[in-house]
Amino acid sequence: MSTSHARAFVALGDPTRQLLMERLAKRPMPVGKLAEGLSITRPAVSQHLKVLHEAGLVTVKEVGTRHIYYIDPRGVDAMRTWLDKFWDRALAALKAAAEEESES
Amino acid sequence: MTPETVAPVRKQIVVNASQEHVFKVFTRDINTWWPREHHIGTSPLAQAMLEPHAGGRWYAICEDGSECDTGKVLAWDPPRRLVLAWQITAQWQFDPEFVTEVEVNFVADGPKTTTVTLEHRNLARYGVAAEAFRASIDAAGGWGKLLESLARRAEEAAP
């Protein structure tokens, strides 16, 4: 698995980050809004957003003085791409195994 | 046609062996070809296993003896068709409540030629992914490129 996919999987392994992704999936929002109702501090939310951003899962846009966070569709698409490549490798290996083993 | 939010992964490969043999290698001998590079256990994968009947378990045995489920057999129709449940989440964990389907068809093109087609579908059930696609459509402003790629995926998904 390539580094970017590994990062995406690792980034999503944390329950708080999953929650942030779910919130952002509903609509883009700034850090303050994201932190509302959570038991963690705003700087902690920013830290999680940084991890998600580095993993290519979220992106940020400046609107006036505010930073609005969005889900980055390219990062999410990476998972499908990973499966796509995985099955390529798997079927190539199946072919090699089936052609190598004598039929019984 | 109702395209899925996320197009299935579709693959096809021609194998120079009989339909029965290819089905057998895919199932009974899954351990001989299943990619080792990634699995969900903490210990290296020792053996990939697939129980040869509907409802059978699809799992891995690790070097430390622990077992990790991948999913189960949903349809068992040798030597033509196999439907597997791939129950690994985007967080790369087995979740018995989470099901995506992998359908594999084995078509005999000749006594020693078999076309294997594989479709991994219900990828929209990767909740976060599906939500993200919806969200990104909602946030249409700067997402022209995304819409293009969605259109491409929809075309890909067309029969």
What topology, given as strand order, has the largest sheet of chain B? 1-7-6-5-4-3-2
What's the helix count of chain B? 4
- The assembly state of the depicted protein chains is heterodimer
| β-strand number of chain B | 7
Indicate the overall shape of chain B. Answer: globular
Distance between the termini of chain B: 8 Å
Element-by-element helix/strand order of chain B: EHHEEEEEEHH
Gyration radius over CA of chain B: 18 Å
Q: Which secondary-structure class do the elements of chain A indicate? A: alpha+beta
Shape descriptor of chain A reads: elongated
Q: Which two chains have the most extensive interface, and how many residues on each?
A: A-B, 38 and 45 residues
* Beginning-to-end CA distance, first to last residue of chain A: 35 Å
Output mean pLDDT of chain B. Answer: 77
**Uncertain segments of chain A:** none
Poorly predicted runs of chain B are 132-155
Number of helices of chain A: 5
What key phrases describe this protein's structure?
heterodimer; A: 104 residues; alpha+beta; three-stranded antiparallel sheet; 13% strand; elongated; B: 159 residues; seven-stranded antiparallel sheet; 7 strands; 35% strand; globular
Architecture blueprint of SSEs:
The complex is a heterodimer of chains A (104) and B (159).
Chain A: H1 3-11, H2 15-26, E1 29-30, H3 31-35, H4 42-54, E2 58-63, E3 66-71, H5 73-100
Antiparallel strand pairs in A: 1-3, 2-3
Helix pairs in contact in A: 1-5
Chain B: E1 9-15, H1 19-27, H2 30-33, E2 45-50, E3 57-62, E4 67-77, E5 81-86, E6 100-110, E7 113-121, H3 127-138, H4 144-157
Antiparallel strand pairs in B: 1-7, 2-3, 3-4, 4-5, 5-6, 6-7
